[in-house]
Structures are given as C-alpha cells and as structure tokens.
Amino acid sequence: MTFEVLGILVLAIVLGVVLFAYDRSLRELAGIKKDKIDFEQRARRRMLKILREARDKAVEIVGEAQVDAGNLKQMMDVEMDRLAKEQLSDYKETIQNISKNIEDEVKNEVGELKKVLEMETVEAEKTVAKRMAEDYAQAEKKIEDYKLAKYKQIEEGAVGVLEEVGRKLVGKTLNFREHTDFIISALEKAKLQNDI
Amino acid sequence: MISENTQEILNGIILKSEAVDWLRELDVLDQSVYKTDATNFVQTLEKEVNSKLSLAIMNELKIKGDGIEARAEALREIRDGVNSLPEIKLEVAVDLPTAMIKRISKWLKENVAPGIVLDITENEEIMAGVRITYLGRYVDLSAEKNWTEVWKQVTSELVTKGETSYGGNSV
Q1: Structural domains of chain A, count
Q2: B28 and A CB contact within 8 Å
Q3: pLDDT tens-digit profile of A17-73?
Q4: Which of these CATH numbers, 2.60.40, 3.40.50, 3.40.30, 3.90.1200, describes B87-152?
Q5: Which residues in chain B have Cβ-Cβ distances shorter than 8 Å to A195?
Q6: pTM (predicted TM-score)
Q7: Is B130–A171 a contact, with Cβ atoms under 8 angstroms apart?
Q8: Sign (positive/negative) of CA torsion A95, A98, A104, A108?
Q9: Which of A42, A54, A186, B89 could join B119 in a cystine, given CB atoms 3.0 to 4.6 angstroms apart?
Q10: Is A180 in CB contact (< 8 Å) with chain B?
C-alpha cells in the first residue's frame, strides 16, 4: 500500500514538473513576441529620425547651393521615402527570420524536454512497478516460509507427543513375566557378546 | 577360609541389599564376641540374626570351634566372603516381583558367577530390557535405546513427508 501511494506521488511530481516547464516555455515565447514588436517600433522610430535629419541636412546644403529647393526637396523626399521603405523591409525580414528561428528553437527545446520527461515518467513507472513486484514476491516468500515453519513445528510437536505415548505404552503393556523374559534375553545377548 | 558349605550359603544371597544387611548384622555380632560366652553367642544367633547368616556362622563354628578366637575368625571370614561376592547392577523398567528377581538371579548364578548379587534399580524411561554394569563394563540393552533410534527414523520420515506435502502450497 505504501509503495502504491509512493508511486502515485512520484508520478504527480513528474507531471507537475512537465506542466511547469511547458508553462514557462509558453511565457518565454510570448515575451519574445512582445520583444519583437518593441524592437520593430524602436527601429522604425530611429529610421524616421535619421531620415528627417538627413533630409534637413540636404535641404540646408541645397539652399546653400541656391538650387531650387522645392523640387529638390520633393525629389529628396521621394528618394528618402523609398530608401526608408527598403530599409524597413530589410529590417522587418531580418527580425521575422530571427523571431522564427527563436520560435523554432524554443519549440524544439520544449518538444525535447517533453520527450525526456515522458521517458523519465515511463521509467519511473517501470521502476515503481518492478519494486512493488519484488516487494510482493518477498512478502509472499516470507509468508510461505512462516507457514512451512509452523507446519513443521506443529508436526514435530505431534511427533513428540506420539513418541511419549508410544514409550509409555510399550512399558505398560508388558506384564512382569514378559519384562523378565526381555531382561533374561538381554542378559543372554550380553553374555554372548562377553559383556558379562 | 570358609568352607564350601558356607560359601554355598553365601551364594544364596540374591540382592545387594541382603548382603548389606548381613554385613550390618556381622558388625553387631563382632561387638558381642568378646562380651558373651559360647552359649549366649549361639542364643543371640538363633534369636537376633537372620537364619541364613546364622546357619553360615554355625557351620563355621562347627569347623573352627566355639572359642572366642574361633568365633571372631568365623565372623571375619564370612564378612570377607560377603564382601567378595561379585556384584551386577541392573537398571530395569519396572519394580519386579521377588519371583522374577529370583529367576533372573538364578540365570546369572548359573551363567555368570555363582555368588553374584544383584543391585537392581527401577527406571521407567528405559521401557523394557535392561542396562547392565558389571566389572566396570556398561552395556545398554534397553528398549529405550532401540526405541530412540527407531523413533528418530520414523520422525525424520514424517517430517520429510510433511515438507514434501506442504512445500508446493502457495499463498
């Protein structure tokens, strides 16, 4: 009974560990997604800031060179916008690739962790079952040995009683003449053996 | 040296206890040898001493005479004769009646030694038969000895059968 409860406890602990690890992995994945969005927003803001500074600098240069500021500005804006879009696209693609790699990696790790935990759970179950079977066999042997010892004890006791009864019967059932015959017969034997 | 007739009387002693009684009576007679005359000594023999011992002493006095020295010598020689009777110790299972003791004594006197005296003790444990101690040798010819051997064999067979029959059981 104790080993069964112990086995259930071990399995419960293992299940708890699996669930905890799985939950932690999900949380990590959600965090990574959030980091990815933040990173994109920060990158976009930084890019726009750079473009604005570049544009302002260009306008300044153009103005100094007495070029048609309006046309140049428009042309620059278009160009800058195109460049910004290209850059953003690259950034986005890179970040998406990174995110996907991280996600795949996490998924793999979670999968492997799950496999390991499942294997450990099965092994634990096998160990507990084997131990229980061994203990049961041992208990069974002890009971069998005890039974045999008791049978033997009872049998020996009975044999002892029988011996005593037999001993008394032999002595009591002979009359004096038979006892005397027995004694003389023994004396004759002793004489033949040169004991007397 | 006691006469053959006296020796025959001594050989009539069956039990060691009888021999011990004879020795005790001889001690008493020893004390009266020097205090009484021949007539009183004979009267003492006739009244106070058992008939067989009395007969043995009278038998010796006929040969040796009835003087003080002759009486003392007769008593001494008879004591020596009693003390020299061979003794056999028998341990038997029951308190045998006199007739059976005489039968055993007769066989021993005819087959072992004419003057042999029996020191019999009773021991219920030996069941039947006899344990003998004679001239320093001991031999156990009791049923108990054989019974123990036979019983050991029977017991071991029973236990072996018991183990066989119970060995295959399961819980």
Answers
A1: 1
A2: no
A3: 989 999 998 999 898 889 888 888 888 888 888 888 888 887 777 676 555 556 766
A4: 3.40.30
A5: 132, 134, 137, 139
A6: 0.52
A7: no
A8: negative
A9: B89
A10: yes
